[in-house]
Amino acid sequence: MNKLLKYFTFIVVLFLIIVILLQYYVSRPTEPQRLVCHKGKLLVQVEGEGTVYVRIKRFSCDSEKGMLILEEQL
């Protein structure tokens, strides 16, 4: 009985450690991207605090396999 209680305690502690680490990594803030392609429009982050973006009118964009493809419109 004593041995079973030790194993149970070890498993519970290990489970709690894993849950706390997962929660830490999931809740970490991520840096916003500098360039964003949204509905074919190129957005650039404005310097300063917060996540404010402005649209660049001369360029259209497409996102494919994690790459940003820019096209200049005349």
Notes on the structure:
It is a single chain. The chain is of the alpha+beta class and 74 residues long. Helix content is 35%, strand content 36%. A four-stranded antiparallel sheet has the order 1-2-3-4, with no helix packed on it. β2 (41-45) and β3 (53-64) form a beta hairpin. The radius of gyration is 23 Å and the shape is elongated. The mean pLDDT is 86.
In short:
The protein is an alpha+beta fold.
Question: Could you name the key traits of this structure?
Answer:
74 residues; alpha+beta
Topology:
Layout: H1 2-27, E1 35-38, E2 41-45, E3 53-64, E4 67-72
Antiparallel strand pairs: 1-2, 2-3, 3-4
Bulk shape = elongated
> Alpha-carbon distance between the termini?
79 Å
Helix content: 25-40%
Name the strands of the widest sheet in spatial order. 1-2-3-4
Number of strands: 4
Query: In terms of structural class, how would the helical and strand content be classed?
Result: alpha+beta
Radius of gyration: 23 Å
Q: Approximately how much beta-strand content do the residues carry?
A: 35-45%
Question: Main β-sheet: number of strands, strand sense, barrel status?
Answer: 4 strands, antiparallel
Number of helices: 1
Low-confidence stretches: none
Mean pLDDT: 86
